[in-house]
Specification:
Strand content: under 5%
Largest sheet: none
Number of helices: 1
Structural class: mainly alpha
């Protein structure tokens, strides 16, 4: 039952977010791709 409640909360949060006039942003600027460390999977 808690999984269902989690999904309901996520969906309702996304719906509320889409109706906001001014959406919050973090203003993150990514560095050059060459400066990023290599990730080996």
């Amino acid at each position: 039952m808690s999984g269902f409640n989690f999904l309901v909360n996520v969906v309702s949060a996304l719906i509320a977010y889409t109706y906001q006039e001014k959406k919050p942003s973090l203003n993150i600027r990514l560095p050059q791709l060459g400066d990023l460390p290599a990730v080996i999977v």
